[in-house]
Design brief:
By secondary structure, the protein is of the alpha/beta class. The protein is built from 4 helices and 5 strands. The chain has a 5-stranded mixed beta sheet, sandwiched between helices. Helix 3 (74-85) links the parallel strand 4 and strand 5 (90-98).
């Protein structure tokens, strides 16, 4: 959080890319004093996610996606696209375990 606090991002919303990451996002939100959002998604098969809804207001906001593991980045790209579709102006992402297999770096 220190890194993102130093960036002084305007209108920051911390986004959990799934229900499992809500606690992690809550910690960042409380530390940074920013708004929360959650992405409702489901896995349709291994390494393939379908984004259903963005829960929370991201319109006109800077979004920080907080994830635990990024493997192929497919979910991350879909979450970012859902945020853009809901009016987010800028999107950042971070994770604790960057596997980044295949073309993950190139697609995000």
């Amino acid at each position: 959080m220190d890194h993102f606090r130093k960036l002084n991002l305007p209108n920051l919303t911390v986004v959990s890319p799934d229900a499992g990451g809500v606690e992690r996002a809550r910690f960042f939100r409380e530390e940074g004093g920013c708004s929360p959002a959650i992405v409702d998604k489901r896995r349709v098969e291994m390494n393939v996610a379908e984004v259903m809804h963005v829960i929370g207001d991201v319109n006109g906001r800077t979004c920080l996606i907080i994830d635990d593991l990024i493997d192929t980045a497919g979910t991350l790209v879909k979450v970012a696209q859902a945020l853009v579709n809901n009016g987010a102006t800028t999107i950042y992402a971070c994770c604790s375990h960057p596997v980044l297999s295949g073309a993950a770096v190139e697609i995000f």
